[in-house]
Write a structure and sequence with these properties.
Mean pLDDT: 90
Strand content: under 5%
Number of strands: 0
Largest sheet: none
Oligomer: single chain
Order of helices and strands: HHHHHHHHHHHHHH
Structural class: mainly alpha
Distance between the termini: 28 Å
Length: about 350
């Protein structure tokens, strides 16, 4: 969220919280590689079944909660990223408290987001609140004895709706028409129906969710200001390229879920999940990082044309992985997954280098 107030928590503590998120990211990526049969350290290989919770709760939970706390300007809101980070540490030591720490983190984030809605009732703040409610529901389902994959759609809905809410906020200077707002409300309602059906074990839930994602990708592609800013220059054009390419993967993932195989472990489901999580979510991360990092860490991230390299490689490596999944080419899928991990590392290095160059300058 934009317009962050004066800092109420020192930057060094924010860096410490981000370090916990980075730990979850590295471990989650290595755990995902272990699932593909890539040799990784034993500490990460033993967490292969927790790839999803580490990536969504441990990493994105910290990053999104921290950004929300900075925007809200309340000390108590920083408990959310702290609890999400502690869940990663609990996972490392084999504690059973990890899921409940994520429940607590999502409950604090829900309270923080509800405070935002109270202060600024709007379509984008309500969408953000819906996203956090999905994260809380997924965490509760996991903590109450469910296996992690039972919460997958709730967790992914958290990411999709959070990104959508933030795009609505950043595009508020080009507000949607009344008809477009009604269409968006229908999409949110379809999301709710899909998640309710899926929670009851109904296969139609995933189909409806897929159709909702296609509708959302179409809506965002038509309504987002990126359609215009992609004709700009520099950082503005780069961010728009990230967004529009991400919307394409969002639509692809939705189509795969609506029309393809939905059974857990299936090739088409796996392709759809990674198209959504990597192609859509991480394309949004790539695009928003130069905007969010200065707000959270008070460090500028000057634009460099080199930013396009990780973005292009992300989409290329994901295309290889998705194609391999659909063709049943396991070695190629493994190579694509390894390339995905290397691209994420390259992106982090690229951003860090830009920050360091700015500080030296």
């Amino acid at each position: 969220m934009s317009g962050a107030p004066a800092p109420v928590v020192a930057v060094r503590w924010r860096v410490a919280l981000l370090a916990l998120g980075a730990l979850a990211l590295v471990t989650g990526v290595l755990a995902g590689l272990a699932r593909l049969g890539v040799g990784v350290p034993d500490a990460a290989a033993g967490k292969a079944a927790l790839h999803g919770p580490l990536m969504i709760g441990g990493f994105f939970g910290v990053v999104i909660s921290l950004e929300r706390a900075v925007a809200l300007g309340r000390r108590w809101a920083y408990a959310a990223p702290l609890l999400a980070g502690l869940s990663t540490l609990a996972t490392f030591v084999g504690s059973a408290h990890g899921p409940w720490l994520l429940v607590a983190a999502s409950a604090v984030l829900f309270a923080a987001t509800a405070d935002v809605v109270r202060r600024q009732p709007a379509l984008f703040t309500f969408t953000l609140l819906c996203g956090v409610a999905c994260w809380l529901a997924g965490n509760l389902a996991w903590a109450l004895g469910g296996v992690p994959h039972a919460s997958t759609w709730w967790w992914l809905a958290f990411l999709v709706l959070t990104i959508t809410g933030e795009r609505l906020e950043l595009s508020r200077f080009l507000p949607p028409s009344p008809a477009a707002r009604r269409a968006f409300a229908a999409i949110l309602a379809a999301f709710a129906v899909a998640l309710a059906l899926e929670a009851n074990g109904t296969e139609a839930g995933v189909r409806v969710l897929g159709a909702s994602l296609v509708a959302l990708a179409t809506w965002l592609g038509r309504q987002d200001v990126a359609r215009r800013t992609v004709r700009g220059e520099g950082l503005t054009r780069y961010v728009a390229a990230c967004l529009l390419s991400g919307y394409a993967w969002l639509g692809f993932a939705g189509a795969m879920l609506a029309l393809g195989e939905t059974a857990p472990g299936g090739a088409q489901r796996d392709a759809a999940l990674h198209a959504l999580a990597l192609g859509f979510v991480f394309a949004m991360v790539f695009g928003h990082a130069p905007i969010i990092v200065p707000a959270v860490l008070r460090s500028p991230v000057p634009y460099r044309p080199l930013f396009y390299v990780p973005l292009a490689l992300l989409h290329a490596s994901l295309a290889v992985r998705v194609t391999a999944d659909l063709a049943g080419a396991v070695p190629l899928a493994r190579a694509g997954g390894l390339a995905n991990a290397l691209v994420l590392a390259l992106f982090v290095v690229t951003m860090a280098t830009s920050v360091l160059r700015a500080r030296r300058g």
